[in-house]
Every structure is written in structure tokens, then in C-alpha cells.
Amino acid sequence: MKFVPRFLRPFNDWEVEEVEKLLLIIQGKRLNADLEDRMVWKESKDGIFSVKSCFNSLDHSSAVPFPWRIIWSTFVPTKVGFFAWEASWGKVLTQDQLKRRGWNLANRCPLCCDEEETINHILIHCSKAKVLWDLLFSLFGVNWVLPFSVRDTLLGWLAPLKDKKRSKVWRAAPLCLFWMVWKERNRIVFENDVLSIQRLKNSFICNLLSWANSSIVEGPLSLFNFLDWLGSC
Ligand SMILES: [Zn+2]
Prior knowledge:
Layout: H1 13-26, H2 51-61, H3 68-71, H4 78-88, H5 95-100, H6 119-125, H7 127-140, H8 150-155, H9 164-191, H10 197-215, H11 223-230
């Protein structure tokens, strides 16, 4: 094919469109011949790039509110944070997600065996998970109405407690619950184990105590003192 230099052939439609866009952008702009050309970062006042201004521009442009503060907590193990992050975006490979990807299977929640498995069902609305939610609320002595989705649950998970340390445990509690339910679910699905509500309750309390003892409270609390402390006003 013979090469034709740009200046010897007419512009095509796409190129004309791009030139028109460029002319519109520079229309009305005044050039200062005394200044050198330079790159300007439009997201900061001084025109200089900073990670903070970049983060703010991304954060404010996000149309979907996201509970990043509660998920990326220093009191919660990173792998649990990642799981909650995936769950909030509806990206965990529950059976409804597998069906969407072309897997031919009968969708049934492995915990209650009554409803189809979705991430919102198994972590929030499943009757077996609800046992843990009721336990959590009774431990802290609060009443709470759970919204439909994992994301809305975390977005609305405000700290109703005056004590800062108890508030930290309160904020970590739903993530601990999610993790324990998911581990129990995987034990049933992949290891052919049977559901144990007692094991679910024990693992939830013991993990929450372990997280609290590792970074929230001063000095390790016994299980008895921990439960007593959670319920104190
Ligand atoms: Zn269920």
C-alpha cells in the first residue's frame, strides 16, 4: 500500500470531528508567549498533582456510596475486609453468581435449605444467619432493623455507643459475622459438614473477642469479662 503523507490527503470525518473539538477547547483561551508550556493538574488549586487531590476527585465522582470506612478497619483482618468488600459489590461467588456465569445448578442456600443463595440472603436474611444477628444485638443491648443489602447494612452501621472501644468492637462485629457465616457455608459446601448453630455462635464470639484483645482493649479480656463489658452502658 502506498504511503500518503497527512498533508497530501483530505481529512476524514473522524479527523475533522477531532479538530473541531480541539478548536472548541482552545476557543477563547489566551496564550501568554512569555511563559513556557507546562503540564497543569486541574484537580488542585495550584495545578500541581497530589495523591490527595487525585483521591478526592475519584471519591467525589463516585456515584455509588460505599462503606469503605467500616470495611478497611485496622481492627479487622485484611482477608475479612476483602471479603466484605467483595460482598458489598455483590461479587462473591454465591450460587446465583455461578448461575449467571453459566453453571447449571439448582440454587439452594446451604444453611437454611429454604431460599436461593445470594450474598444478601446468606449474610443478612437467612434464618440461620439471623440467629447470629440476634445474638450480636442482644450482646450490645441494641435494637436494629437490617436493610436489604450487605452494602446498605454497612453504610447504616453507625456507632450508637458512647464508649469508643465498644464502638470499635461494634463496627467490627458485622464483618466478623459475615466471615463466620461464610466459613460455615464453605464447610458445608466443600467439606460435606452439617450446619452447627452452636459452632457458628461460638466461632463468632471467640473471633470477636480475639480481634478485640489483639488491638482494641487494653490487656486480654476473658470471655466472661468480654461479654460483660459489651453489655455495659
Ligand atoms: Zn438461607
